Amino acid sequence: MTHVITLLCTREGDCVEVCPVDCIIPGPKGDPDWGVLFWIDPDTCIDCGACVPVCPPEAIFPEEDVPAEYEADIARNAAYFTEGPGYWDYDLDEQRH
Ligand code: SF4
After folding, report:
1. Does pTM top 0.85 for this prediction?
2. Does ligand 1 lie within 6 Å of residue 1's CB atom?
3. Splitting the chain (97 residues) into consecutive groups of 10 residues, what average pLDDT does each group show?
4. Which among 15, 26, 34, 82 is least surrounded, fewest beta carbons within 10 Å?
């Protein structure tokens, strides 16, 4: 199981600061395919839930609670780490918003 960031994400970045396993990564700002959201690595997430209450737009859900209209975001979060940029060396303040 994992948590999932949906298209409700506004790139606040608060989630990155609380994740104990550093598995939330911003899609590089300006990247047309991946730059809209921050993403959660489903292979590393430990389902602690710490990111959920700190997200201002309430964009993060446990996988089983993702609203139907955002269901495609489950696969997109995983794909970011297998087909997209994945982990990279970023400056969080530059990537916010
Ligand atoms: Fe990180 Fe916990 Fe959120 Fe998973 S549920 S992304 S481990 S803060």
Report:
1. yes
2. no
3. 97 98 98 97 98 98 98 98 98 96
4. 82
